[in-house]
Amino acid sequence: MTKDTILMFLRRNGALVVLAIILTAVSTAAPGILRWRAINSLLQDNAPLLIMIVGATLPILLGCLDLSIAAMASLAAVMAAMLSPALGSASAYVVVAGAAMIGGLQGWMIGRLQVPSFVISLGALGIFKGIGMYLTAADMVGIAPGISVYETLGSRSFGISNAFILVLIVAWLFTLMLKLSNLGRNIYAFGANEIAVYISGVRRDMVRAFAFAASSGCAALGGVMMISQTMFASATVANSLLLPALVGVVVGGTAISGGVGGVLSSLIGGLIAILIRVGVTISGLPPESQDVAFGITILIAVALTTDRAKIGLVK
Description:
Layout: H1 3-29, H2 36-45, H3 47-61, H4 69-87, H5 90-113, H6 117-136, E1 141-142, H7 148-153, E2 156-157, E3 160-161, H8 162-180, H9 182-192, H10 194-199, H11 204-230, E4 232-233, H12 242-251, H13 263-282, H14 289-305, H15 308-311
Helix pairs in contact: 1-13, 3-8, 3-11, 3-12, 3-13, 4-5, 4-6, 4-11, 5-6, 5-11, 8-9, 9-11, 12-13, 12-14, 13-14
């Protein structure tokens, strides 16, 4: 086997190799993690993170970055809890649809105002966090039991978490869209060469708006999943998920510079992020070590996946 063949294999299957290595290490330290009950519990508990990773993949495929997803998830959880007494199950659908519209507006503004995506989304992060703190007065908001959509998301079908099943369905739909539709091909082309897409007549603002709408909608769905598990919400309930969500996307092989990757590879990256969290916990390290591990991981992943030919001068 030649060096080029090995490098090609690692580029195509690097995430799976890393997943296998980390899984072997974690299962050696804690053999019980390979039991179905433990795996199912992990997938259920981390379904909000996985759905956020699925949504965050689309802006990154464009070469953009949505830093507002965690704050959106927290705000969506708060809004769903506050609206649930009046709207019942419809509160979840209203919140997800509203979040998608707000995300679409963010994507549209990036193109129209010619402001970098991280600036717009960073501003949105502050806005969402501030609104959530104002609505809750920095306190928790409970949700009454018996609301069908939240009970369904918090339960299981055929022994598998319904929330994780929903993650797989959304990931499958996005994968089909990216592979089979003109919109999906435009997303990859946008990330590979935005100027060429513009010259070809594609509406860049609409493509970007869709990607950010999907990202915000999935983030809100993650917030809904969180309150289905805990039956309460707060303005900071999802704040710790931003870094692992971005780690999941880039570790899975989606290049931060855009044009390369996909939803399924991001899900593999999400499993790696979950195992990193588990590994830090079972090793007895303090919880703050998770952020250190994620920070190191994202630095390495971005350095390896960035296409510097498209960036030019790095400032």
